[in-house]
Amino acid sequence: MSTQREPLYRGIIWTAGAILATFLVAIPAKAQSNRGDYLFFVGSGFLCQPNDSSACPAVTKSAGDSNYEMSGAGTFNPRGKSVTAVGTFTHRSPNGSTLETGIWMANQLVSFDSYGVARDVLMREGWAFGLSEFGLRRMPTLSGSMPTGGLAVIRIRLLPMWGPPRMAVLQVNCALGKVPEERQTEGIRLSFEGGGGEFDQEISGRTIFVLTRPGPNRAPKLPAAEGEPRSAPAEARQ
Fold first, then answer.
1. pLDDT for 195
2. Mapping DSSP to helix (H, G, I), strand (E, B) and coil, where does residue 7 land?
3. Domain contains 230
């Protein structure tokens, strides 16, 4: 990367990071209000660990050894085929130099195949909801949420720092639950539309889906104890 582009590169990374951080805070509340929604995280959020660089970002490689590093998060509903997601990406050459960087946004949920829930995975792995890389220490706990394995196929739009936008298909695989033999490796794959290249080797990075179940809106109203004064009917109070 040229020295002229370095300030712009740093600027877009900080901007994209701020967008992702804001999004990670907002999506739990959105998903909590819709039964059957899934949250998903790709090399970001509570999946990241300070002493484990293999967790974040998620990395996928092509046959020519260039790779894409991707982080992001979102929410989707398999029945309605709705999806909202955003993240960052960096394309690197085989020698590690940056070819392009920018943000990506979900365009369409193509499919989702669930491998089943893994109820104790968060406690077993010692993960805690948070986003330490952007200064956020904790996210709201979701009532009745369940970590789930699966494969999501999402059409995304990549918006690079320079050059035209491009469309691609992102595969997010979380190897929890009853994982098919051919999907034992956790990670991502990326294929560009129109013959723009295919990155089909999962190199590193953690992913997870979280099935959300909204809790009750209010506690049940208990009957008044015998002898306790009862509220007068609304008509009598008027």
1. 82
2. helix
3. no
Backbone angles phi, psi at 81, to 5 degrees: 55, 25
| The one-letter amino acid at 52 | D
How far apart, in whole angstroms, are the C-alpha atoms of residue 201 and residue 77? 27
Residue ranges for the chain with pLDDT beneath 50: 1-4, 9, 31, 123-124, 126-142, 214-226, 228, 230-238
Q: Which two tokens stand for residue 104?
A: 């990506």
Copy the structure tokens of residue 27.
């999506």
pLDDT at 138: 41
217: number of Cβ within 10 Å: 5
CB atoms within 10 A of CB 31: 26
Residue 238 has a pLDDT of 43
CB atoms within 10 A of CB 161: 18
Residue 94 lies in a domain: yes
C-alpha span between 228 and 144 (Å, rounded): 35
Ordered DSSP codes for 174-193: E--SS--GGG-S-EEEEEET
**237 in a domain, yes or no?**
no
Give the pLDDT of residue 89. 95
Model pTM score: 0.74
- Give the count of domains, the chain: 1
Domain range for 143? 6-214
Q: Is residue 153 part of a domain?
A: yes
d(CA 29, CA 34) in angstroms, rounded, equals 9
| Closest-CA residue to 173 (of 25, 51, 43) | 43
